[in-house]
Amino acid sequence: MLEIRHANQRGRAEHGWLSSRHTFSFAHYHDPKQNGFSDLLVINDDRVAPAQGFGKHPHRDMEIFSYVLEGALEHKDTMGTGSVIVPGDIQLMSAGTGVAHSEYNHSKTDPVHFLQIWIAPAQKGTAPRYQQQHFSEDDKRGVLRLVMSPDGADGSLVLQQDARVYAGLFNGDETARLELASNRYAYVHVARGSVTVNGVELGEGDGVRVRGEEALSFTQGRDAEVLVFDLRDIETSALWA
């Protein structure tokens, strides 16, 4: 079963320097029907004005990653990490026992467009950790490239949860198929462009909760960039039981 969440159904926040769309409940946006999906808790689609950003603030016990679509994002944290994240890079911060960080638009002239995504960790109280890796367009062209996993398979970043994240680029005749185990959920987020998933056309910003499907088929992409999350078959409410 595919449960579609259209882009225009998302929460929104406009702060002048920041234009954000929230797939799930976040900050001042709260919808009791949209409190994440399985261990996937946040997908924020953020556009930040030049030289602006999120000042230093703390997190703990959360897997947080940034996926830059356009521009450059400057990261600093209390682990001593400083980096600039550009399209193709994936930054993963395991907050663990606690870390503070800032995220700013690195450019003084151009906006930055990125996704910030939170996944609940399997275990609380672990040591904070930072990872960053580049996956080229060729790595993702016409395939679903594994970019995060619990065991670092195929050169992916190590995620502290029983979840796997794939990234893909699809245009024209390019197709891909992802097999799903019978005891797994999935979530599909279309970061840009459009693509057909199991016969359903999805546009930029659309998302899909997937339950009870044997596989996901991606076809008829038009400059599409997608993220796919292979998740445990639990409802988010079970995390807080």
Automatic annotation (TrEMBL):
Pirin N-terminal domain mapped to chain residues: 8-119
Keywords carried by this UniProt record: Iron, Metal-binding, Oxidoreductase
CDD domains registered for this protein in UniProt: cupin_Yhhw_C, cupin_Yhhw_N
Record keyword Oxidoreductase present: yes
Cofactor(s) needed for function: Fe cation
Keyword rRNA processing attributed: no
Domain Quercetin 2,3-dioxygenase C-terminal cupin: 146-231
Cofactor note: Binds 1 Fe cation per subunit.
Single Gene Ontology MF annotation: quercetin 2,3-dioxygenase activity
Binding-site list for Fe cation: H57, H59, H101, E103
Classification via InterPro entries: Pirin, Pirin_N_dom, Quercetinase_C, RmlC-like_jellyroll, RmlC_Cupin_sf
Enzyme Commission number(s) from the entry: 1.13.11.24
Sequence similarity: Belongs to the pirin family.
Protein name: Redox-sensitive bicupin YhaK (Pirin superfamily)
